[in-house]
């Protein structure tokens, strides 16, 4: 902790670190302020909660800076452990838990194309651009490994901010593409960064390159498998043991703990915790969530969303306050001119813009070649929005930069210090400027009357109002599991959706025949003698869509 208070201790009080108490208390108070201000700005076409928290963090950092006589601006030192172990897992898990699964898997190949191949293209462009442009700025002794690390650091998009600037209900197609790509992108960027850290550049060969590609595919597959396995295990345990007959607290606890355990296991096995916990969230929402009691469904939905919201707010406050840390800025100010710092940050921003365009438009063209209908293709306006919404850089970039250029959050080398300050500058600029302009850009390119059209043509049907309603239309008049009538889609819609619907039809048959009898899921109704039936209070919309 960076803040200490000289407060007396009462005779009956236990020993305490008052600096820690003050730090935690201030963050809790600031989160409350962010919630109130975010509520007041809910209807703003420009602001969102992440930008609000970032601005409040910057303002608070400025006040602490003045109070501490310009020594420091933060009450916590930026910690990779705090970010990767405590803040990121609930955010990514809730995103997987809440995601519209049919929309996500309908665009899964495009998402993987953008998230994996696109990140490799972005990494190559930024690395080569850094080698050609940043090396000319004479900022210090940076080797080839540092330039490759820069490629990985600035290839990582801010999937957290994407949750704030894109609306899953208004633009489901864009949301599924940009956010889905962001999750795969973050995982790929972290893998690339770690690979560059351990890669022997002096003995590079085509065999080692192919080995790297094979390791990445292995990592992607095993991380996904671990997340799916953890989700299915939780579903099986809750279905068989049914904790709800004694205590709903236990089934809620087992869901939360097994989700977090999947992330920690992935990190212990050197896999991608981001991918693991994301797919664990998807599987839990498809099976486990339906196996718990009705009250637990409401509780878990709101608990996961609340934890994610608090983690997001804390994260942006954290980044805003850390941005004004004087240690790094003093080293940079004493060694380099202001113009050199501006030139470095501008060069990185330029490379981010070019690298993003270098894969969004070509890969969108390739993805469109596989689509048989115009409705499934990515229009040029949507491509512009995808390009723009993915320009934001966030805490993943900062965490990787701290890992590469500092030791325990501190550095005395001018070349490392200017890389940290430039990373912070790029993150602040991209989040505030690109983030502020994303909503107006969407309204400009896709007017309100077309948003509804996208929601109906490119997205899933609206979320049902009852637990007993079908959550994914499958073209039949009656769902044989629960006997609820389903409106048959029009012939034109059935024709346009026939390729996807046929695949989905076979998955539903496999799911109904083999998966649900073992793992539960939609249609499974936990029964406790004397308890209310499941049709009593349909308070929460389903999340199968």
UniProtKB/TrEMBL annotation:
It comes from the Eukaryota. PANTHER family: SODIUM/HYDROGEN EXCHANGER, SODIUM_HYDROGEN EXCHANGER. Keywords: Antiport, Ion transport, Membrane, Potassium, Potassium transport, Sodium, Sodium transport, Transmembrane, Transmembrane helix, Transport. It catalyses: Na(+)(in) + H(+)(out) = Na(+)(out) + H(+)(in); K(+)(in) + H(+)(out) = K(+)(out) + H(+)(in). It comes from Oryza glumipatula. Belongs to the monovalent cation:proton antiporter 1 (CPA1) transporter (TC 2.A.36) family. The lineage of its organism: Eukaryota, Viridiplantae, Streptophyta, Embryophyta, Tracheophyta. The chain crosses the membrane at residues 20-41, 53-70, 82-99, 111-135, 173-196, 216-238, 259-284, 304-321, 342-365, 385-405, 417-437. One of its GO terms (cellular component) is plasma membrane. Its main location: membrane. The keyword Ion transport applies. GO terms for molecular function: potassium:proton antiporter activity; sodium:proton antiporter activity. GO terms for biological process: regulation of intracellular pH; sodium ion import across plasma membrane. Residues 31-442 form the Cation/H+ exchanger transmembrane domain. It is a multi-pass membrane protein. InterPro entries: Cation/H_exchanger_CPA1, Cation/H_exchanger_TM, NaH_exchanger. This is Sodium/hydrogen exchanger. The keyword Membrane applies. NCBIfam families: b_cpa1. It is found in: Membrane.
């Amino acid at each position: 902790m960076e803040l200490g208070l000289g407060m007396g201790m009462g005779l009956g009080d236990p020993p305490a670190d008052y600096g820690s108490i003050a730090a935690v208390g201030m963050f809790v108070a600031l989160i409350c302020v962010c919630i109130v201000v975010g509520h007041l700005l809910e209807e703003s076409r420009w602001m969102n909660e992440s930008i609000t928290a970032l601005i409040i963090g910057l303002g608070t950092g400025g006040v602490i800076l003045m109070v501490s006589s310009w020594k420091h601006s933060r009450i916590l030192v930026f910690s990779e452990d705090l970010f990767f172990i405590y803040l990121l897992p609930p955010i990514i898990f809730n995103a997987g838990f809440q995601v519209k699964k049919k929309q996500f898997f309908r665009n899964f190949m495009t998402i993987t194309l953008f998230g994996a191949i696109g990140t490799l293209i972005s990494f190559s462009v930024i690395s080569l651009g850094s080698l050609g442009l940043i090396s000319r700025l004479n900022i210090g002794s940076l080797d080839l490994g540092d330039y490759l690390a820069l490629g990985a650091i600035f290839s990582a998009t801010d999937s957290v901010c994407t949750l704030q600037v894109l609306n899953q209900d208004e633009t489901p197609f864009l949301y599924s593409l940009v956010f889905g790509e962001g999750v795969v992108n973050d995982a790929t960027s972290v893998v690339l960064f770690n690979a560059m850290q351990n890669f022997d550049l002096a003995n590079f060969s085509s065999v080692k390159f192919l080995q790297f590609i094979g390791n990445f595919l292995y990592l992607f597959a095993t991380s996904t498998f671990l997340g799916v396995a953890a989700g299915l295990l939780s579903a099986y345990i809750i279905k068989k043991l049914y904790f709800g007959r004694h205590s709903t607290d236990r089934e809620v606890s087992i869901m939360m703990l097994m989700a977090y355990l999947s992330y920690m296991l992935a990190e212990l096995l050197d896999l991608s915790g981001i991918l693991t916990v994301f797919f664990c969230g998807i599987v839990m929402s498809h099976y486990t969530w339906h196996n718990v009691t009705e009250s637990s469904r409401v509780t878990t939905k709101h608990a996961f969303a609340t934890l994610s919201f608090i983690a997001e707010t804390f994260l942006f406050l954290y980044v805003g306050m850390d941005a004004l840390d004087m240690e790094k800025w003093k080293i940079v100010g004493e060694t380099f001119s202001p113009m050199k710092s501006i030139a470095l940050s501008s060069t990185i921003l330029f490379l981010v813009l070019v690298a993003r365009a270098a894969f969004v438009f070509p890969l969108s063209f390739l993805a469109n070649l596989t689509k048989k209908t115009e409705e499934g293709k990515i229009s040029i306006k949507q491509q512009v929005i995808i390009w723009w919404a993915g320009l934001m850089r966030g805490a993943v970039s900062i965490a990787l930069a701290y890992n590469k250029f500092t030791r325990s959050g501190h550095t005395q080398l001018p070349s490392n210090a200017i890389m940290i300050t430039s990373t912070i500058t790029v993150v602040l600029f991209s989040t505030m400027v690109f983030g502020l302009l994303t909503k107006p850009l969407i309204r400009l390119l896709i007017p309100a009357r077309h948003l509804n059209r996208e929601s109906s043509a490119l997205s899933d049907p609206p979320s049902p109002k009852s637990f007993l309603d079908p959550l994914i239309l499958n073209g039949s008049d009656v769902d044989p599991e629960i006997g609820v009538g389903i409106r048959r889609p029009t012939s034109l819609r059935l024709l346009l959706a026939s390729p996807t619907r046929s695949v989905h039809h076979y998955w539903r048959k496999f799911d109904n025949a083999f998966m649900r009898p073992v793992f539960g899921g939609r249609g499974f109704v936990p029964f406790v003698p004397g308890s209310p039936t499941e049709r009593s209070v349909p308070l929460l919309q389903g999340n199968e869509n």
